[in-house]
Amino acid sequence: MKLSVKEMIYIAIGIALVAIGAQIKIPSPVAGYFTLQLPAVLMLGIILGAKNASFSVGLYIIGGLLGIPWFANGGGFGYVVSPTFGFLLAFVVAAWVSGLTLKKPSFVKRAILCELAVLLVWVIGMLYMTIYNQMYLGKEVSYLASIIAIFSFDLVFDVILAFIATQAGLTIKRALGR
5-176 in CATH: which number? Predict the structure, then answer.
C-alpha cells in the first residue's frame, strides 16, 4: 500500500484522535462509562475513506497491544483477553463501513452507514464478550441475553453520537477539501 505524505499525516492524526477519544470517559448507567472512540472512528471513515480510516484504526489497535497506553484502560497485549476487546476489533470494521464511497453522498446516506457501523460494533463486541464469558470465564451467557443487552441505553447513546459524528465528519471533510 503506497501512501502519500499527506495521507500518512492524516492517518497519524486519525490515530491520535481515536487515542484522545479513548481518554474522554462519559459515565453510563449500564456500561460504567462511554468513550468517544466510536465517534472518532466514524469521523475518520468519513474524512479518510474506508481504506485509510481502517488502516489508521488498525495501527491504533496494534500500538495499544504493543503497550502504548492509549486504550481507555491503558495498553498491552493483555487487552486481547479483555471482555471489551471485541469492540476495539470492531472499530476497524466501523471505520471501513463509515468510509465507504457513495455515489451522490448525502447526510442521510452517510448517517445510515454510520448507524450500520455502530450496530456492527455492538454485534461484534457483544459476540466477543459472550464468547469471552463462556470460554474464558466459564460463565453461562446466552447469545439471546447478549442481543438483548445490545438494545440498552448505551446503544441509544451511540446512535445519537453517530449522528453528531456524521455531521462533524462531513463538516471537517468539506473544510479540508477532501
Answer: 1.10.1760.20
